[in-house]
Write a structure and sequence with these properties.
Largest interface: A-B, 37 and 31 residues
Shape of chain A: globular
Oligomer: heterodimer
CATH superfamily of chain A: P-loop containing nucleotide triphosphate hydrolases
Structural class of chain A: alpha/beta
Shape of chain B: globular
Distance between the termini of chain A: 30 Å
Structural class of chain B: mainly alpha
CATH architecture of chain B: Up-down Bundle
Radius of gyration of chain B: 19 Å
CATH topology of chain A: Rossmann fold
Distance between the termini of chain B: 53 Å
Number of domains of chain A: 1
Number of domains of chain B: 1
Chain lengths: 222, 245
């Protein structure tokens, strides 16, 4: 098993973390807490000397600055692939070429155990049809898993159509969902493990707390 | 004896006030729940503008007698000047969210460069707004060009708003995200309403279109309250607790 990097989440996942060579999808509204979970997953990878790779549409400097809040050193040996929509070798408009380029980078990773963070699904849906994204992501995830990688990917809720979101959930081994919930005069972020390979489905929600570079989950009674 | 018109004004003002107060509460509540810095900032400025508008409505509709004393008028002038700063900060935070969610990371209307210029124009308008206050206090001698200054200020206001509307429109036309699109659409309409209220202000005065304490221009705020409500609701998708059990 691969630690999620969040002690509370490891505990929720029956003390195991994510299954090895699996692909986990994090879904939440933009800015609601997917990124901290992904950063801590990568940080845990640095600690356990795994090969770490980020595939993102964000400028790498911004990503490093965000990750710094969670104690990820800028000098940590990670491979960053910044994808663009209209230029560079990592062009999101050309999925065939993008697949080849990413494969090349994965092949170059010497370490067997790999952790990969994918943050380009929402932009892909903006550029391509759901069918194209489905085919691309299915092939990519399969390739990653075949090469010893545990993958965490993020998807913005409300940005893509619900059908597109559901199609993505189908090709991932696990789905962690963060929702903003209205309770009395408060809006609170809640997390639930919607599905996870090897773990019985649960309908329990946990209250998400992000502070001082740490993520905690608290029991929440619905 | 309260006239029917006054009752109507109080009623409409009440609805506007409640709507703005709710938008403000909702925006700040979402800000508290979010983690992402740029999204929190956008929620903060959305809430700030709603709060500002609610205070303005409360003062105009429910506390009209307070307006009139020198100290209150001066305070009102300074507070009123904050409008442009809040608006600029709000647009800036919104544009940053849009750029972040745009797969092309497009810098429409060269916002990263022109933002500084917009801040400068805002500062000039605020200074021009505060000048009359200083005149009233006797710190600055009365200048005959006072009315010209007023026209220049209105002109600058309109120019600035036109540019801000264009910025929002430029982003709104290219964004894919349906939630953000809804937010920007309401923002676009809100800016038009605000600009209309500023542009119509001298016209309303000239034509004597004031109806009691509720001016023609201020009535446009009712419309802006509706757009504020829609914007606060488009900040993030929120589910009711009953829907997750």
């Amino acid at each position: 098993m691969v630690s999620t990097g969040v002690e509370d989440l490891d505990r929720i996942l029956e003390g195991k973390g994510y299954p090895e060579r699996s692909a986990i999808l994090l879904i939440s509204p933009p800015g609601a807490g997917k990124a901290p979970l992904a950063y801590l997953f990568l940080k845990s990878g640095f600690i356990s000397s795994d090969a770490v790779m980020c595939i993102t549409s964000k400028p790498v400097d911004d990503l490093l600055s965000d990750m710094g809040v969670f104690g990820v050193d800028k000098q940590s040996p990670a491979r960053y692939i910044q994808c663009f929509a209209d230029k560079s070798q990592y062009n999101m408009s050309n999925l065939t070429n993008l697949f080849i380029e990413i494969k090349r980078q994965v092949d170059a990773l010497a370490v067997i155990s790999k952790r990969i963070y994918i943050d380009i699904i929402s932009p892909l849906f903006m550029l391509h049809s759901p069918k194209m994204v489905y085919m691309f992501m299915s092939s990519l995830l399969q390739y990653f898993k075949d090469h010893g990688a545990t993958v965490v990917a993020s998807l913005d809720e409300g940005v893509v159509a619900l059908e597109a979101q559901r199609s993505m959930e189908m090709i991932f081994d696990g789905t962690i969902e963060i929702k903003l919930c209205e309770e009395r005069f408060n809006i609170i972020p809640l997390m639930r493990v919607k599905k996870m390979l090897g773990i019985a489905p649960s309908f329990s929600y946990y209250r998400l707390g992000v502070s001082k570079g740490e993520v905690h989950f608290y029991d929440f009674n619905t | 004896m309260i006239s029917t018109l006054e009752i109507l004004i109080l009623f409409v003002g009440g609805i506007t006030l409640i709507s703005l107060a709710y938008s403000s509460f909702w925006s700040f509540a979402i800000r508290k729940a979010l983690y992402g810095k740029i999204y929190r900032k956008r929620a903060l400025w959305t809430g700030s503008f709603a709060t500002y508008s609610a205070l303005e409505i409360a003062l105009i509709v429910y506390l009209p007698n307070v307006v009139g004393s020198l100290v209150v008028d001066l305070t009102w002038l300074v507070v009123g000047s904050a409008l442009l700063f809040i608006l600029t900060a709000w647009i800036s935070s919104t544009v940053k969210v849009v750029i972040s969610l745009d797969p092309f990371h497009r810098n429409r209307m060269k916002w990263s460069q022109s933002e500084k210029f917009v801040w400068l124009i805002s500062a000039i308008i605020v200074a021009m707004n505060i000048l009359p206050a200083l005149i009233m206090l006797g710190y600055v001698n009365y200048v005959s060009a006072f009315s010209i200054l007023d026209y220049v200020q209105t002109g600058l206001f309109i120019a600035l708003f036109t540019y801000l509307i264009l910025v929002v429109f430029a982003y709104q036309s290219v964004i894919f995200d349906r939630l953000l699109k809804a937010y920007l659409k309401s923002f676009f309409y809100l800016l038009i309403v605000l600009m209309l209220s500023i542009a119509l202000s001298p016209v309303a005065l000239t034509l004597g279109l004031f109806i009691g304490p509720f001016a023609l221009t201020d009535s446009l705020l009712i419309l802006s309250a509706f757009f504020m409500y829609r914007m606060s609701k488009s900040l993030a998708p929120v589910v009711a607790k009953s829907n997750i059990t």
